[in-house]
């Protein structure tokens, strides 16, 4: 699903109200928006920007709290100083291993959708290196997708090429720690909430702790591997 | 204890302060008062700028003051304010003696009032804010009858005179949004052309507007992207939702316009059934 950036296709600056810009990254690879967001966050003070929030999406970064149009030039310069990371090294972020008991209620449905065994679903999920592309839906809920393959013989491939539809009817309550799939994304519910994703397992890891310096374990840019446990 | 006993609630009563800007990249809504200028005025009047105060929907609130007397001030929707049965002015500091009963009647206009108390409401701060967030559940939940609410020590001095925020009028100003071409050809012109009715299921997350649907000029799915306060999002139904302070940090439907932040409080003060109009900024 992530074909990599088309070389030469420059980021577009879309209007988002009087104090914000949405930087659009057409054809962004997994983790690229998070990479740009980290770059802007790190450089905003030196650039003299008044940013309140820097929020990556799947292929965009919202810059909110700007003094426009006065700061437009500094924003453009800061974004231009970011070099889109090349395939395979888009996310130099830290690696988090997530232990999972693969006993989700929808595991058989996912295997059915992919035409493979339950064991193969687990093998694919534990074999991929994922990256937190952005957070949304709930505090600490990370949208995880496959990093580009590090194998030079397989350029353009990602480690997570699989997709699965949402459930026809959402569950009113999904327990915290549920590991789930929908579309080309994987997510771990940080707190109990309603949810329509396919549940494949559960983890005991605390994904969200408001008392911690970094409240979200899987903040954008974090690399993630899932490890099967009993 | 020094604080309040909640004796009666009408509409939802939420503790708010300046919210949680800076955490949106982790999926944390900004939250905070629906009208920051009105909340600021109330807090300045009681000498507690930056403190946590109460956002009250459609009055109906009764509180009993515990501990020492306090200055209180009411702004926003002009709910009739009684202290120990005596009518008191809005947008002025009002003294409430020890044990006073403070009540808010039904406001003749508007939807939300802000009640500030000297010292400010003392609830545990979460990610640096005491605001209740109705979407994510961070911070305190809306107040319930019988609940005791702690107040911080009142060290401030009331401000006897202040300048109320100017009451805007006329159509709400619309700025361009990032995805106008999805609901084209000119979604701001469409929004400005007709009157929109505030729907009953509007809340702090979003104000839903009923009116002639915007045309779908692009179908398919938009990859999730971050949205701003005041964003006008148009789902496939074609009827817009304007995001309020507890809005989700990202959305998958196109944002075609953004309501000017100076005008957004007036939209959030509109009652279900009331009509609003827009114009280009």
TrEMBL record, chain A:
It comes from Nocardioides bruguierae. Gene3D superfamilies: 3.30.1360.40, Cyclophilin-like (2.40.100.10). Keywords: ATP-binding, Hydrolase, Nucleotide-binding. Residues 11-218 form the Carboxyltransferase domain. One of its GO terms (molecular function) is ATP binding. This is Allophanate hydrolase subunit 1. Pfam families: CT_C_D. The lineage of its organism: Bacteria, Bacillati, Actinomycetota, Actinomycetes, Propionibacteriales.
Automatic annotation (TrEMBL), chain B:
Pfam families: CT_A_B (PF02626). Residues 157-179 are annotated as: Disordered. Residues 25-281 form the Carboxyltransferase domain. Keywords: ATP-binding, Hydrolase, Nucleotide-binding. It comes from the Bacteria. InterPro entries: CT_A_B, Cyclophilin-like_dom_sf, PxpC. One of its GO terms (molecular function) is ATP binding. This is Biotin-dependent carboxyltransferase family protein. It comes from Nocardioides bruguierae. The lineage of its organism: Bacteria, Bacillati, Actinomycetota, Actinomycetes, Propionibacteriales.
